[in-house]
Specification:
The chain is an all-alpha fold and 416 residues long. The chain contains eleven helices and two strands; from the N terminus they run ααββααααααααα. The protein is elongated and about 95 Å long.
Amino acid sequence: MAALLQASTFCQRGTVRSTLHVPKLPVTRLSFPKLPTANLVEELSYPRLNISTGRETPNNTAGNPVDSDPMVIAKLYAIKVSIEDRIEMHMNIGEQRNNWNHLLLNSINAISLSGVIMTALAATTAAAGGGTAVLSLKLSSTLLYLSATGILCVMNKIQPSQLAEEQRNAVRLFKQLHAQIETTLAIKNPTIADVKEALEKVLALDKAYPLPLLGAMLDKFPSRVEPAVWWPNRKPRREGRFGKKGKNGWSMELEEEMKEIVGVLKRRDIAEYLRLGQIALKVNKMLAISGPLLTGLAAFGSAFAGSSSYGSWAMMVGVIAGTLASVVNTLEHGGQVGMVFEMYRSTAGIFRLMEESIVANLEERDVERRENGELLEMDVALKLGRSLSELKDLMNTSYSLSQSKDGTEEFASKLF
């Protein structure tokens, strides 16, 4: 018993000690590769390519930043707001004039057909011996035909379908100009030259697609069909020549390719759309003359319908001429022949603008002042609906056909 107590006392007073032996980890130094600071600075200060002009501009994130003139930016924003207002106005007026076309077409046809019915009733009533009723029917039909003749003359003069197409083109072109100004403000250092260029483009569009009818309306029946022009006049420049080594994306091969494309646009695309525009103009002019002439003839026939001597012939003239007038009016304004003419004219204008843009670059003596050659080539290819390889094939085909003078040359554009 004493031994157990002694052992218990020993366990309570004793202490247990333990030592943990942790192995020492080898100390290593981490080495990082040195960053090429010189190349980084060069990269930050490397000139950027301006998408709107195709020229290289210094990067403003390094070196001395180039601050834009606040007044220039304010002027560009003012022009931008003015363009937005014009887009809204042209959209509203275009919709209104499109409604004019439908409402006037339906109204004139209803008036003409009502005159046809009254002329036939007058002849039938005269054969039955109704004196007073015949006079009232003849007078009513004559007044209806004369009213249709007057309204149709005004409608053929203003061509509402063509007016609506003009406003649609204006909306599209103002939206393009709006996007160009946004691009200039986003990626370019604007100058006073950009303000003048934007202002000239706005005024040229106002002149090409006027809003008012009286005094400013475009001639709907011109003596000669010309492409629509909505851009400012370009100043003539001397032709530029340079060596085989390309600069600013240009080379001798690209210059020859652009010259060949200009030739194809002149010989095929522009000439074809002017020819189609001339046909549409002739058809529209013939229909515009025939409609009022037929309603006037119908008014003359209805005035003598039911008379004793030539009543039957007068009735036939009044009925047939009135019916034909409705058909002609439907063909002209229901078929929107004026809109077709304007579409051909504006498409020829697109090709003319492309031609002048290419020629202006080729005539620029300083290659660095041209648009970037690669960007211009891509822009032309997209506008023509072709790939870059197809654009080169077009040049080769056109050149071979011009040498052999055998075969039909294809059109440059695949979009229109």
